[in-house]
């Protein structure tokens, strides 16, 4: 008896009839679009549409039957692409569409689409011949399947998996960053942690090292087999009758992310104060506890900007009806005002499920603002904080959205600064929504609509929008920011959290955070410190968990180390805030995977336990109790931030880090602007600025402040360093790594006197020019500044 293996490996295909595009019959041009009439393997007709959006982007659609709908989704913000220059060629065996960047070729019989770059090299190709010796497909070609009399339709596509190809993206996924060989699902769920394939934030977008990205414009469940079944093809299946995806050519990942966010939108820069420390736990029970924590943060010299209050700001059983429990939190408006005077913003917890029996439930039920059953009654969702369950706010209903926003407006006017938009992953699959969608289509979209509503209300009252969201989907980057959910309190999980953040960043979302110390359980002091080092070099930083996360709860050593790193973060805020502006303009994440910065270095394909923080810092958190780890430094010069030791890459290091040391390297030719110490954002301006300069040939940095934008350029020759600063109102302290004592200092063509040069005082990290003395390095608005340092030879 022969054994042919398990045929269920491609997708769950039991009882389904498969139909795929076999050949092209005819084509029709519609301006920048081509409509192909095709025949399936069952002799049925099917249409495939290809829209040329730009020279480097096309959109492919196929409907299982009938006309291809011009369907719009809230994920996509750009529909009108304008005219595209291209050449079209019709040959007996194929048609081709050629732009300045791409050649798209469609073979007529059998149907097969392939993409080539302008040099003729293959970039991507459908795989229509991946069959075994019995003639069975190991990856179903472009087509669809129908199950039984119910007519449940799913569409699918299969593309070649090249031997050297690797994949990144898909949202916040906690597995290895490279998804080659993995089965990935885009279906939003409460992940209940950060160490399984379950995901709070699924983004139907991925990038290939062959130089392209694919964005699937669908909110239905998607299953990807990225070489997990067949090793020569990868496939994706959508739980819908419409295949709709954008193909984006780079070839660089940075360009692909920019073009992807051209389609789905970019993140606005969050408020400057949001980049300070957030302090939280589950949860502060009353006003007295909140005010005590805030006093202690100031008394212990821990900079902090936000105090977050989890569900207990509402009465038990009323999570979430947006009504203060004024017995536990008397005079909340007075509380927020008093905290504000001491530099604290207040954030409040929420979720979109309204407990049955509350005033808000009765309002929503009467007005029809909740998701419904097929009979029109309110769908009751089991919710953990109420035995009677609750209703799901229907964010597809504009009136319900306005009603929901009003709940926030009232609190914002009371002094609340932000909301933690928790949950949002449980839109019922079998519910009916105002826009006619069922939960099959609405489930993944729900987090996008939920976060949008709260973001817009906050922006309306506060001037800048902000959420602290757990769930997300494609387009969620427009409503920052997110955190990773509920990780366990151990270093193994911390590694998964980092992978999730880097994966999310490679999915077009630049602002992301996580719970310092982990959420579920109580971390050891070592885990808390290691997590804090990682967390304070993340886009946003929040301490949060089941148990207290204030640093003094973990001993004097942990408190000392935490204080050092949080103060360093606050000093780095000019750098961090500038990086946020760059992310907003480009779609690049603030935490950048190694592959994003060194795409041409195969050694970076699997380096997902270290990352770039902006462009200057390479961060390598410690995930082992021994404090030892391997670190890869790519080609170029690298400087250990603490010891100033230099390394020439590519090189693998074995790094031994004491508990108070986060392995941190600076990339050569970096300028890092830093600010003075302060307790909260806004206590002092970004002035004076310290320019920590690591210049070996040419270094440049653009500082983005709310008041001004300043450009710094430094060039270096063997005996001369020249720094140019565009007009500004700031004073500067200058640091030059490995700089010998200057024999001459020229400022704006005027040489400083010997007495003036005495302002240069030697320090271990370089040479400082102190702006606090009579001779100040100051750039006035009327002109720029050039400083030339003539160096003494050894």
Properties at a glance:
single chain, 794 residues, TIM Barrel, Immunoglobulin-like, disordered N terminus
Describe the structure.
By secondary structure, this protein is of the alpha+beta class. Among the domains are: 275-353 and 396-479, Glycosidases (TIM Barrel), CATH 3.20.20; 591-665, Immunoglobulin-like, CATH 2.60.40.1180; 685-791, Immunoglobulin-like. It contains 12 helices and 47 strands. It has a 13-stranded antiparallel β-sheet with strand order 12-14-15-18-4-3-2-1-10-11-17-16-13. It has a 6-stranded parallel β-sheet with strand order 25-21-20-19-29-28. Helix 8 runs parallel beside helix 9. The longest helix has 24 residues, at 439-462. The N and C termini lie far apart (82 Å). The model is unreliable at 1-8, 762-767 and 770-776 (pLDDT under 50).
Mean pLDDT across residues:
93
Compute the separation of the termini in Å: 82 Å
Q: What's the overall geometry?
A: globular
Query: And the CATH topology of the domain at 275-353 and 396-479?
Result: TIM Barrel
Q: What's the short version?
A:
The protein is 19% helix and 33% strand.
How are the elements arranged and paired?
Layout: E1 16-30, E2 33-40, E3 45-54, E4 57-63, E5 87-90, E6 94-98, E7 102-107, E8 112-117, E9 122-125, E10 143-147, E11 152-160, E12 167-171, E13 182-186, E14 202-208, E15 212-216, E16 222-226, E17 233-238, E18 242-249, H1 253-264, E19 277-279, H2 287-299, E20 306-309, H3 332-341, E21 345-350, E22 353-355, H4 359-367, E23 380-383, E24 386-392, H5 398-413, E25 418-421, H6 439-462, E26 482-483, H7 491-505, E27 512-513, E28 515-516, H8 525-535, E29 541-543, H9 556-571, H10 573-586, E30 591-593, H11 594-597, E31 611-613, E32 617-619, E33 628-640, E34 646-656, E35 664-667, E36 670-674, E37 689-694, E38 698-704, E39 709-717, E40 720-725, E41 731-736, E42 742-747, E43 750-751, H12 754-757, E44 760-763, E45 766-769, E46 777-778, E47 785-791
Parallel strand pairs: 19-20, 19-29, 20-21, 21-25, 26-27, 28-29, 37-41
Antiparallel strand pairs: 1-2, 1-10, 2-3, 3-4, 4-18, 5-6, 6-7, 7-8, 8-9, 10-11, 11-17, 12-14, 13-16, 14-15, 15-18, 16-17, 22-24, 23-24, 30-31, 31-32, 32-35, 33-34, 33-35, 36-37, 38-39, 39-40, 40-47, 41-45, 41-46, 42-43, 42-47, 44-45
């Amino acid at each position: 008896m022969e054994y042919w293996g398990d045929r269920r490996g491609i997708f769950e295909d039991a009882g389904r009839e498969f139909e795929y595009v076999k050949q092209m019959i005819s084509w029709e041009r519609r301006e920048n679009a081509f409509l192909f009439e095709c025949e399936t393997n069952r002799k049925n007709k099917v249409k495939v549409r290809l829209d040329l959006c730009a020279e480097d982007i096309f959109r492919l659609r196929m409907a299982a039957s009938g006309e291809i709908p011009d369907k719009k989704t809230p994920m996509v913000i750009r529909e009108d692409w304008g005219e595209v220059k291209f050449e079209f060629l019709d040959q007996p065996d194929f048609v081709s569409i050629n732009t300045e960047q791409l050649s798209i070729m469609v073979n007529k019989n059998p149907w097969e689409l392939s993409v080539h770059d302008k040099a003729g090299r293959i970039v991507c190709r459908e795989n229509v011949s991946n069959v075994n010796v019995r003639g069975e497909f190991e990856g179903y070609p472009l087509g669809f399947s129908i199950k039984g009399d119910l007519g449940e339709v799913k569409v699918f596509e299969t593309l070649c998996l090249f031997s050297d190809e690797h994949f990144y993206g898909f949202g916040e996924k906690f597995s290895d960053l490279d998804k080659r060989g993995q089965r990935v699902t885009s279906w939003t769920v409460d992940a209940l942690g950060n160490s399984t394939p379950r995901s709070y934030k699924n983004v139907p977008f991925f990038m290939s090292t062959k130089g392209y990205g694919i964005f699937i414009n669908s909110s239905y469940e998607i299953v990807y087999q990225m070489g997990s079944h067949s090793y020569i093809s990868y496939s994706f299946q959508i739980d819908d009758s419409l295949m709709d995806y954008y193909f984006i050519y780079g070839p660089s990942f940075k360009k692909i992310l920019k073009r992807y966010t051209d389609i789905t939108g970019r993140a606005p820069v969050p408020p400057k104060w949001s980049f300070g420390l957030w302090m939280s736990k589950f949860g502060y029970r009353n006003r007295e506890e909140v005010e005590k924590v805030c006093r202690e943060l100031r008394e212990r010299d821990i900079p902090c900007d936000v105090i977050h209050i989890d569900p207990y700001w509402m009465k038990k059983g009323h999570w979430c009806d947006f009504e203060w429990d004024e017995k536990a939190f008397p005079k909340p408006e007075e509380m927020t005002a008093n905290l504000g005077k001491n530099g604290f913003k207040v954030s409040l917890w929420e979720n979109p499920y309204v407990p049955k029996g509350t005033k808000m439930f009765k309002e929503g039920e009467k007005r029809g603002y909740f998701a419904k059953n097929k009979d029109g009654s309110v769908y009751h969702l089991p919710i953990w904080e109420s035995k009677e369950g609750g209703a799901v706010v229907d964010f597809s209903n504009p009136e319900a959205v306005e009603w929901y926003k009003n709940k926030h407006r009232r609190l914002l006017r009371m002094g609340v600064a932000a909301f933690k938009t928790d949950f949002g992953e449980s839109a019922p699959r079998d519910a009916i929504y105002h826009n006619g969608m069922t939960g099959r289509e609405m489930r993944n979209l729900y987090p996008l609509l939920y976060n949008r509503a709260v973001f817009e209300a906050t922006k309306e009252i506060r001037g800048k929008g902000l959420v602290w969201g757990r769930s997300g989907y494609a387009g969620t980057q427009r409503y920052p920011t997110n955190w990773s959910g509920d990780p366990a309190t151990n270093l193994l999980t911390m590694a998964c959290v980092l992978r999730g953040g880097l994966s999310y960043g490679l999915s077009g979302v630049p602002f992301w955070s996580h719970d310092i110390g982990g959420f579920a359980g109580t971390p050891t002091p070592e885990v808390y410190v290691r997590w804090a080092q990682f967390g304070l070099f993340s886009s946003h930083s929040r301490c949060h968990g089941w148990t207290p996360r204030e640093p003094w709860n973990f001993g004097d050593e942990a408190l000392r180390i935490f204080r050092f790193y949080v103060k360093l973060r606050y000093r780095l805020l000019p750098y961090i805030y500038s990086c946020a502006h760059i992310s907003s303009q480009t779609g690049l994440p603030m935490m950048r995977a190694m592959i994003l910065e060194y795409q041409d270095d195969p050694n970076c394909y699997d380096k997902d336990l270290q990352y770039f923080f902006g462009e200057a810092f390479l961060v390598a958190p410690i995930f082992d109790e021994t404090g030892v780890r391997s670190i890869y430094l790519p080609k170029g010069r690298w400087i250990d931030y603490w010891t100033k030791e230099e390394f020439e890459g590519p090189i693998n290091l074995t790094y031994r880090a004491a508990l108070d040391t986060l392995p941190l390297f600076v990339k050569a030719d970096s300028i890092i602007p830093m600010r003075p110490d302060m307790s909260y954002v806004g206590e002092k301006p970004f002035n004076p600025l310290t320019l920590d300069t690591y210049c070996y040939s040419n270094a440049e940095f653009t500082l983005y402040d709310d008041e001004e934008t300043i450009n710094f350029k430094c060039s270096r020759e063997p005996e001369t360093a020249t720094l140019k600063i565009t007009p500004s109102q700031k004073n500067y302290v200058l640091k030059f790594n490995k700089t010998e004592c200057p024999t001459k200092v020229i400022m704006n063509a005027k040489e400083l006197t010997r007495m003036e040069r005495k302002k240069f005082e030697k320090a271990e990290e370089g040479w400082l020019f102190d702006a606090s003395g009579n001779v100040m390095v100051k750039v006035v608005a009327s002109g720029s500044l050039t400083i030339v340092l003539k160096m003494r030879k050894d």
